[in-house]
Amino acid sequence: MAIEKLGNKVCIITGATSGMGKAIAELFSAEGAQLVLSGRNQERGIALSEQLPHSIFVAGDVKDASYNESLVSSALENFGKLDIVSLNAGILGLGNVVDLSDALWNETLATNLTSIFSLSKFALPHLQKEKGSILINASIAAFKSFPNHPAYCASKAGAVALMKQMAMEYAPDIRVNAMCPGPVDTPLLWNSAQAFKNPDKAVENAAESTLLNRLGTPEDIAKLALFLVSEDASWITGTAMTIDGGIINS
């Protein structure tokens, strides 16, 4: 019988109600993790927690610091400790620099970047006790520009920089890494394609531009997430790992 890679590990997963975050939650659960699931959609969150053993759902918005504090408190109160934080919440904030409103710029940075700082602030002391890890779901947008995505690109580049700084600051007690997905078949990708004149063609072109000639799946990302938070990656920290079907090299 295979040994569970995350047996007895307690994990907070943000953005858990759809896309990559949901796939990560499902795989982590299958590998024995006890989960605090975070998201704004209460109906989807409750349904997911009912499907996954040893999991609870806490509805809220990661832009709210008090909510992030409650996620950590929920992990401690329900499971007694905290080992892993998997950060997947994100929005696009579409619009070029001239047209993008200050409000949407601020909301995008708050969701995609400041929330990482906020949740990490509350989680780090407890992760230190368990020699735990933080995994940030960033994007190839940290390294590659896309039209009408200034807030998204800036937030993802900031997330990678923050990851590197925390990895340095909290080593050797805590490992901090980032994943940088390319085009993954999720609702966010299809929303992102709205920045192009022909959204369907943009998604088709993205798939064809990868060296592997297909879009990624949420399950592809979940497998990398599992590796990076498990003991299999015990000598990996401060790394932004691209998972993009080779599109950056195409």
From TrEMBL:
Domain of life: Bacteria
InterPro entries to which the protein is assigned, alphabetical: NAD(P)-bd_dom_sf, Sc_DH/Rdtase_CS, SDR_fam
Similarity field: Belongs to the short-chain dehydrogenases/reductases (SDR) family.
Stored PANTHER family: EG:BACR7A4.14 PROTEIN-RELATED (PTHR43975:SF2), ZGC:101858 (PTHR43975)
Protein name listed in UniProt: NAD(P)-dependent dehydrogenase, short-chain alcohol dehydrogenase family
The species this protein was found in: Pseudozobellia thermophila
